[in-house]
Amino acid sequence: MISYFSEDIKFDLKGKLINNRWIKMVIGSEVKKPGDISFIFCSDPYILDVNLRYLQHDYFTDIITFDYCEGDVVSGDLFISIDSVRENAALYGASFEDELDRVMVHGVLHLLGYDDHTDEDIAVMRAKEDYYVKMKRSLQA
């Protein structure tokens, strides 16, 4: 089941049904099965606190992914800073919706086993993000 929550901000994701279908398609495309996935939308200060408390990282980020996958069942909690998404959308000249979709699928890709530590990993992640964001746009057409 895919769930959506807000912590310390007021944010309601629009188009949850299409989003759920999209996330399930992404997971299925990678030959996995969807389990319990929670998207938790929050502020920069909130995600910084999560980063410090659970990962001992003292910096802001747009997403933190906690992986609870077992076998080929994809499950996890994805904390997304709406502040950072808005900031990055402006920085990269993207719409808020496109940047949010990119961040959401980025977290799902981490749950699917993709990493972004090396230049090669980053290139693979970006290509997958582009592909899957386009997939969502075709669902909305």
Please, could you describe this protein's structure?
- This protein is an alpha/beta fold.
- It has one domain: 3-Layer(aba) Sandwich (Collagenase (Catalytic Domain)).
- Helices cover 53% and strands 21% of the residues.
- The protein contains five helices and four strands, in the order βαβαββααα.
- The protein has helices at 16-29, 44-55, 82-92, 96-111, 119-140; strands at 2-6, 33-42, 63-67, 73-81.
- Strands 1-2-4-3 form a four-stranded mixed beta sheet, sandwiched between helices.
- β1 (2-6), α1 (16-29) and β2 form a beta-alpha-beta unit.
- α1 packs across α5 (119-140) and α4 (96-111) packs across α5.
- The longest helix is centred in the C-terminal third of the chain and has 22 residues, at 119-140.
- It is globular and about 35 Å long.
- The chain starts with a strand and ends with a helix.
As a percent range, the share of strand residues is 15-25%
Give the strand order, joined by hyphens, for the main sheet: 1-2-4-3
CATH architecture: 3-Layer(aba) Sandwich
Largest sheet: 4 strands, mixed
Q: Could you say how many structural domains there are in total?
A: 1
Query: Any idea of the CATH class?
Result: Alpha Beta
Spatial separation of the terminal alpha carbons = 25 Å
CATH topology: Collagenase (Catalytic Domain)
Query: Low-confidence segments, ≥5 residues, pLDDT <50?
Result: none
**Structural class of the secondary elements?**
alpha/beta
The total of beta strands comes to: 4
CATH superfamily: Metalloproteases ("zincins"), catalytic domain
What is the mean pLDDT? 95
Shape: globular
The number of helical segments is 5
Q: Percent helix among the residues?
A: 40-55%
